[in-house]
Amino acid sequence: MNNMTQPEHIRQFDLQIRTQTLPLLCEHYRQSFQASARAKHYVREQLGEACSLPGQTMLGFADRTMGNRLPTPRSAEGQLVRGVLKRLGIIRPSGHEVLSGCVIVFLQQAEQLHAIYGERIGRRRKGAFQRLWIPLSHESLSQSLPEGFKPVYELAMCLSQLRREV
């Protein structure tokens, strides 16, 4: 069910989650990145030792602890919040993080998160993705980038092996 066919109350709740919960999740991922030597080493390795990591505030790391920050799935609030995060593609139907084990780049502008790019570091399970884009807005990032997006978008492309195709 796409966003336009959802009832108004569901769209309003989704918007509330986007404006209240997603910033908290981004901050959690940022703190996880700052605490992870492995994630910082991976980014430096990909961008070169001389890089100053210009978008550090736009970087995160999914270390499988996000679920601890959400309301319990046994509560009504937890079920609603997790339902929105499932519709957005941030968590799986099982409740696990989609981006677990990934360095994350947040594409945001004026406090609005437009997309999340994740690149798995370390080993991955058979059939698991290596890179993943999660669009969170209906605007196409590939057509024209909003002002201020370019440095962060380029950071994501520097990490991505797909940068030659964009």
**Low-confidence blocks of residues:** 161-166
**Spatial separation of the terminal alpha carbons:** 28 Å
Q: Name the average pLDDT.
A: 76
The CATH class, by name, is: Alpha Beta
The radius of gyration is 16 Å
Strand composition percent: 15-25%
**CATH architectural category:** Alpha-Beta Complex
Number of helices: 4
CATH superfamily: DNA primase, catalytic core, N-terminal domain
Helix content: 25-40%
Which descriptor suits the 3D outline?
globular
Report on the architecture of this protein.
By secondary structure, the protein is α+β, with helices and mostly antiparallel strands. It has one domain (3-165): DNA primase DNAg catalytic core, N-terminal domain (Alpha-Beta Complex). It has four helices and four strands. The chain has helices spanning 8-35, 37-47, 76-88, 150-159; strands at 59-61, 102-109, 112-120, 131-135. The chain has a four-stranded antiparallel β-sheet with strand order 1-2-3-4, sandwiched between helices. The longest helix is centred in the N-terminal third of the chain and has 28 residues, at 8-35. It is globular, with a radius of gyration of 16 Å.
